[in-house]
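User: Sequence in, structure out. Go.
Assistant: Echoing your sequence, followed by the structure tokens.
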Amino acid sequence: MTDTRNAEIISGFRPQMLKFARLQLQDDSGAEDAVQEAIEAALGGIDRFAGRSALKTWIFTILRHKIIDALRERGRTVQVSSLERDESELDEAFDALFKENAHWSPQSRPKPWGDPEEALQQRQFWHVFETCLEILPARTARVFMMREFLGFETDEICTTLALTTSNCNVILHRARAGLRQCLNQGWFAGEAQPC
């Protein structure tokens, strides 16, 4: 591929990269910087891309490292009051999923997902997953992404966002429950439509 063609392909991922970086960094200029650095690194290292993964995966891995570096460098914290406001949004919906004895209520019980490996390989699944992730409160999605996509340990998330370990675990549990509910409705129920 020519350098111009590589630049066009990599730049095509820019909107998704910005969205991901903004969610994590909570700072437009910081997100722009991280994305620009990732694109420059990708263009500079394209000849080392071995093709063992999709180009998009490779580019997002570079961006992931840039975001981790930025988060660790600034040691950013968030005011606890802003976290409490977002957390209350899920309380009512979450509590409705369970009976008083903490077991799933019959109408909320998770349905079998079929063959998850087959679903994971379907491109549309990831579109639905991204839509479900956007439905979560921003702080909940951010904690989930830090843990599952950026690979932060719980103590790192707690330090970065000024959370207690138990609060972080509750947020992660609610994020997973919210994603599961959305995916049950939007994908595994057979409709393959965003919820």
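User: And one key feature?
Assistant: The longest helix spans residues 165-188.
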